[in-house]
Design a protein that fits this description.
The complex is a heterodimer. By secondary structure, chain A is α+β, with helices and mostly antiparallel strands. Chain A is built from twelve helices and 18 strands. In chain A, helix 5 (about 145-150) crosses helix 12. The radius of gyration of chain A is 21 Å and the shape is flat. The mean pLDDT of chain A is about 85. Chain B is an alpha+beta fold. Chain B is about 35% helix and about 10% strand. Chain B is built from eleven helices and nine strands. Chain B has a five-stranded antiparallel beta sheet with strand order 1-5-2-7-8, with no helix packed on it. Chain B has a four-stranded antiparallel beta sheet with strand order 4-3-6-9, with no helix packed on it. The chains are: A alpha+beta, B alpha+beta. The interface of A and B includes residues 309, 320 and 336 of A.
Chain lengths: ~350, ~375
């Protein structure tokens, strides 16, 4: 058996954005090499009454809601933290192997995992052990807003306030950062999943039709918006009519989606307002002058920046490639950790 | 001016970001103030954007965001503008930390680690060599701790003739007020006895020695050599008997070579020699062997002749250790200690004891099965 440190010589350092919706892996000197849904399909073995992994990532997501009885497609993370430790470990193991396909030995990389700033010590320990169980040689934890700010290109090392709003699949993190540290952070369990649930609930309530997660997500991505606009977009979707019990198709427009998203959007705006209220005046002045940065998949919701601008009166910009900000920021943090030690960003 | 015309113009001159934005704004009918209000930015920021003073903006991420928002508000595509901006080479800010750079610290740590390993390895090698040397040098046996009389040594301390070195080892002795004085009669004055005699083949009597606490004037002089003096049994070395109070050893050491083969009444010459020794260069050694002055009157004389190897432990008053060692055959122990004296002899049948000049028979105290004797002398 080859020791981990020897196998580590043949492994690349990884930054993992272990998200509720998607898992992204950034490999040093290569960039983001993996972006797959955090979904695992488990197959039951009737003879041994045990479960084996049937599919992970994209393949497993295609199975969501379409699986036969002996296969269960599950999302092992919920609200940004691990809901199923064993399945998360299997999923990470699969992803780490996938980015080391060409290596001779079993990979044992140093791994930096981004965790929600609102996660508890128990949840962080679960993530750490899960990554270690997946073969990581060393595991570093960095708070997601910090990684997002670094990935977005904010000057986190300067003695100036930088505000970042990272809207992920399960959580929304808002933080004010200065001198490589989080001055204030707020984490609310509202994210892309809540948007999907809100759309599903709206359709059921107003159209009497049940739609699945995948359909709701497609509606959100194609015509979802956060601020009223003169342009109205439409999409045709299908679901099972509750009264008739048979599938029916209907058309949904962007104003309806905006109405559906009001509740989760209000939650995000409230979190931003709360963060601004708790920000020290000097840092608040910096934020007011330059604005805040939106990252995460939620930042791609149409006119979300416009909504935040109108609600807060502050400049808001959307980061370049917001989906990969956290993973890329983790990669840059890994570089700095390598030079200056793990206590630069890592907070246990 | 139509937006398509603006785009065509921009494509012709892709590097002109500011003029493109300004013309688009004017075409959309916005003033700088209008745009600043809608973007929640100051007028200076809008003016700096249109004047392409990008170095006045804090970091790239905000400038890119402002460009995107500006272009969206005036109704043009932000993509080509961002590409033009990227071509100017603005990148994300550098990360830095107040922490020590580990790249340099790691180098020094590496040096310290390697040096430590080398030192430890050298120590281990030296220890191994020393250990091997110890064993090979002694044929696998530990170093002897007691010299036999034949080697010219004594287990405790050997009295030597003047100018002669016994050549034996002198094991450490536990110090005590009653410092024992052990003498081997193989240590003879060289100019009086030939080496064969010193080896014990024909042992002559040795000058009366001992650790008598008395002053030099009380010392009993030793007689002149007498070739007919009785030799110890089996030619083993023995301590010559002296007077009631044994003469201090220093008398023999510091004086002129004066053979003392047999106990004999003191002669004036010997007394003078003893006095000279007391005052002479060996006075310090003689004083060192004396017990404290305050105990002189209470000390008792104990002479043990060892015929066969015997382990001995002798304690004086207050359990003070006087002697504890394996006494080889032929050893003569001339001791002075504060009574009561407790003696443990491992093989009591192999020793002869004189206590204050009188013989003492330990046989009543000998245990039948072990041969060990435990007894006490004096009050």
């Amino acid at each position: 058996m080859i020791p981990k440190f020897l196998r580590g010589l043949f492994s690349a350092d990884l930054s993992i954005d272990l998200g509720t919706a998607n898992t992204l892996i950034y490999v040093r000197d290569k960039g983001v090499v993996l972006d797959e849904p955090s979904v695992v399909a488990m197959r039951s073995e009737p003879r041994s009454s045990s479960w084996t992994v049937a599919a992970v990532g994209n393949e497993a997501k295609n199975m969501l809601g379409r699986t036969p009885g002996h296969i269960t497609a599950i999302r092992p993370l919920k609200d940004g933290v691990i809901a199923d430790f064993t399945v998360t470990e299997k999923m990470l193991q699969y992803f780490i192997h996938k980015v080391h396909e060409n290596t001779l030995f079993r990979p044992s990389p140093r791994v930096l995992v981004c965790v929600p700033c609102g996660s508890t010590q128990v949840e962080r320990r679960a993530i750490r052990e899960s990554a270690a169980g997946a073969g990581a040689r060393d595991v570093y934890l960095v708070e997601e807003p910090m990684a997002a700010a670094i990935g977005a290109g904010l000057p986190v090392s300067e003695a100036r306030g930088s505000m970042v709003l990272d809207i992920g699949g399960g959580t929304t993190e808002v933080a004010v950062i200065s001198l490589n540290g989080v001055v204030y952070s707020e984490s609310v369990r509202i994210g892309g999943d809540r948007f999907d649930e809100a759309i599903t609930a709206y359709v059921r309530r107003n159209y009497g039709t049940l739609i699945g997660e995948t359909t709701a997500e497609r509606v959100k991505c194609e015509i979802g918006c956060a601020f009223p606009s003169n342009e109205v977009h439409e999409i045709e979707i299908r679901g099972r009519n509750i009264a008739e019990g048979i599938p029916r198709g209907f058309v949904l427009d962007s104003s309806e989606v905006l109405e559906a998203l009001q509740e989760p959007l209000a939650g995000i705006v409230t979190a931003v307002r709360t963060a601004l209220e708790h920000t020290p005046p000097e840092l608040g002045s910096d934020v007011a002058e330059r604005g805040m940065v939106l990252t995460g998949g939620g930042a791609l919701l149409h006119d979300l920046d416009r909504l935040i601008i109108e609600e807060t009166g502050l400049p808001v910009v959307v980061a370049e490639d917001p989906l990969t900000c956290v993973a890329r920021g983790g990669g840059r943090a890994l570089d700095l950790i390598d030079k200056r030690g793990s206590n630069v960003f890592v907070r246990e | 001016m139509a937006v398509s015309d603006l785009l065509d113009e921009r494509e012709a001159a892709p590097e002109s970001i500011g003029p493109t934005l300004r013309r688009a704004r004017e075409a959309a009918g916005y003033s700088i103030t209008d745009l600043a209000e809608r973007m929640r930015l100051s007028r200076h920021h809008i003016e700096n954007l249109e004047a392409e003073r990008f170095n006045l903006f804090p970091v790239s991420v905000f400038l890119r965001g402002y460009l995107t928002s500006y272009a969206r508000l005036v109704g043009i595509d932000a993509g080509p503008l961002l590409e033009a901006y990227d071509r100017r080479g603005f990148g994300p800010p550098q990360l830095h930390s107040q922490e020590t750079d580990r790249t340099t610290a790691r180098g020094s740590e590496f040096t310290v680690t390697v040096t430590s390993l080398v030192v430890v390895a050298v120590l281990i090698i030296l220890s191994a060599l020393w250990w091997r040397d110890q064993w090979t040098g002694n044929d696998g046996l530990p170093a002897p701790t007691v010299a036999t009389p034949d080697e010219g040594g004594a287990p405790h301390r050997v009295e030597e003739g003047p100018g002669e070195s016994a050549g034996g080892s002198h094991p450490a002795v536990e110090p005590g007020p009653e410092e024992p004085s052990v003498r081997d009669d193989t240590a003879q004055a060289p100019d009086l006895e030939p080496p064969t005699v010193a080896a014990g083949l024909e042992p002559p009597p040795v000058a009366a020695g001992g650790s008598a606490p008395g002053a030099a004037g009380e010392a009993q002089a030793v007689p002149a050599p007498d070739a007919d003096a009785p030799a110890p049994a089996e030619g083993a070395p023995r301590r010559s008997e002296g007077s009631e109070a044994p003469v201090e050893t220093a008398a023999g050491e510091g004086s002129e070579p004066a053979p003392a083969p047999l106990p004999a009444p003191a002669t004036p010459e010997a007394a003078e020699a003893a006095e000279a020794a007391e005052a002479g260069e060996s006075g310090a050694a003689g004083e060192a062997e004396r017990p404290p002055t305050g105990e002189e009157g209470a000390l008792a004389s104990l002479v043990i002749r060892v015929r066969e190897d015997c382990w001995l432990m002798i304690r004086g008053a207050d359990q003070r250790l006087v002697y504890r060692n394996l006494a080889p055959a032929g050893t003569v122990l001339d001791l002075a200690a504060m009574p009561p004296i407790r003696i443990v002899a491992g093989y009591a049948s192999g020793i002869e004891i004189e206590y204050n000049g009188e013989p003492f028979d330990p046989s009543p105290y000998v245990e039948q099965d072990t041969g060990t004797a435990r007894f006490r002398l004096g009050s």
